[in-house]
Amino acid sequence: MSNLTNIAIKGLSHDSTANAANFNITCRLDDEPASIMGRLPVPTSGDLKESEVTALSKAALADLLEAIAAHLRSAA
Length: 76
Hints:
The structure is a single chain. 34% of the residues lie in helices and 42% in strands. With 76 residues, it is α+β, with helices and mostly antiparallel strands. The chain has a three-stranded antiparallel β-sheet with strand order 1-2-3.
């Protein structure tokens, strides 16, 4: 199994035109630099404050990472 270390979220932004959160995670995989970039659906409605949109984006990213972790735990 590979060794994943130094995980850091380097970018998390909301794209209001696509109702999505863009993210960039950097890490090291077996001592080699790696990055994971993607887009998550973050539907918003109404006139939300920037802090509320950021909280929704963080929650969506946390849910994704937890789903990946759960999948990895069950596959081990």
